[in-house]
Give the backbone structure.
Amino acid sequence: MPDSTPLPAPGTIAPADGSALEAVKPSTRDEVVAAVKAARAAQAGWAASPLAVRAEHCERLAQKLLERRDEVLAIMSSETGRSPTECLMSELATVAPYVAGAIAEAKLALKPAKVPLSSLEYPGKRAVVEQLPRGVVAIIAPWNYPLSNFYKHLFPALLSGNGVVLKPSEYTPRTGAWLADRCAEIFPAGLVGLAQGGGDVGAWVLDAGIDAVTFTGSVATGKKVAAKAGELLIPASVELGGKDAAIVLEDCDLARTAVGVAQWGIHNCGQNCAAIERVYVLEPVADAFVERLGAVMSQLRVAPEESSELGPLQSAQQLAIVEDHVANALELGATLVTGGERTGSGYGYRPTLLDHCTAEMKVMSDETFGPVLAVTRVASEDEALKLANASEYGLNGSVWTTDVARGERLARQLHVGVALVNNHAITGTIPQTPWTGVKSTGAGVAASRFAYHTFVRPRTVFVDKSSKPDPWWFPANPDLQSLGDALVARGQGSLGALFTLAGLVGKRVKAIQTLAASKR
Ligand code: NAD
């Protein structure tokens, strides 16, 4: 049962065993402003260095994270409660290929693009579109992946030539501080700054003269950040909550599907924006699927149990939400297959499977962010699609089936940013695939060349080497009207218009040169 004890201050309790963690001092407003100033001062020199040099620094950062992994795994483990193995697998193991992929994407995104110009309309001219760094980018992060939620933005921001200010969540301040320290060992002094604290500090960061922001977190805060960015007229990429659905078809590989849905439902104790929270299973396979999924989930251990697969919930606040959602589902008629209780250590909560869930239950509508899977049995794939899409959110969605063509057809009908067949959320570690959503998940994009709008602004450089004036300059004379008519005719596909144009251009240029040479 939820209790009414006052909640502890964020980030002061070890989630696995409830022991006290030393509080981290929040930044003052002056320190926040100074961090942005320092990043700006370092940024000009950084932007002037070639992409190859910036890439080499990012690779060195990735190697440093790997070399000193034991330190950061211990820190992450203490403030998230997850075992070091779980932290390693979800946040660190793939950092080297991630940075390599991010560099390859940066080369594509940052490459100047020569603009093809018609020599008829634009004789002697050339244009190129270049990508310039925004300046200083703030990265405001949540607590659920305290390292990778930074580096998926940090690498492209730095590769683009920006300075950065990291703002960790007040629930996981130590991992962010450790990352900032490693950055300070590699990048020019001040280029990567740090602002510690809660929402007030996040708001100060936005007001400290930044040029762009990437925000990952809740819908409520994301709306505030986007509104503030609108007021400041700076770009904001906001990636918010989720309530992902998995559709399990009657022809699925039952054993693989059960363990796959469990993995992506409750890995990281379900505290994943792209966790499967809703499962729509077709009736013919529902009994067998629920039994298998229940068997898998009931065997999983929660830290600090030995060889745990799951950590605890990260905070008392999160535990309260999970308990409220489960209680609400049970009151409204869901069946508890397994779990539904605390482990008795820290914020540990047993993997929980609820069957016979209905749309009005919180577990089917609101983000639970816990080790809870809610199953609804459906009569057809159309019903599954309809229910899956009837969500406020749209991050990932998956279809589980042995008929891959059918799976793809259905997956493409899911209203999500990432549609999958027989897997879920796995693209979060692939730097070439955009991580994005629809509806209340927000339109922000992380990873891939498509994320670069936040990090760079395009600049067009146009150079005219022609010695002649352009034929549509002053003065207006009857030939100008003819020139316009010929351009229209050419636009409508007339080949003859090309000859007319060539003659008119010569006449017009002469008239313009006469005007240019005339005296009062
Ligand atoms: P949150 O919105 O409470 O906090 C996120 C960050 O914003 C924290 O650093 C916080 O201090 C800061 N903040 C709070 N108020 C602010 C303000 N007014 N201005 C600026 N910054 C402010 O979110 P949370 O509880 O830390 O994170 C959990 C949420 O994050 C979940 O909803 C989850 O789905 C979402 N999330 C989404 C993605 C994604 O890719 N879509 C990834 C991870 C987490």
User: Anything to note?
Assistant: Residues 140-144, 149, 167, 169-170, 198-199, 202-203, 206, 216-218, 221, 224-225, 239-242, 273, 367, 369, 395, 435, 441 surround nicotinamide-adenine-dinucleotide (CB under 6 Å). The chain has three domains: 29-66+96-240+450-459, 244-430, 470-517. DSSP finds 17 helices and 19 strands in the chain.
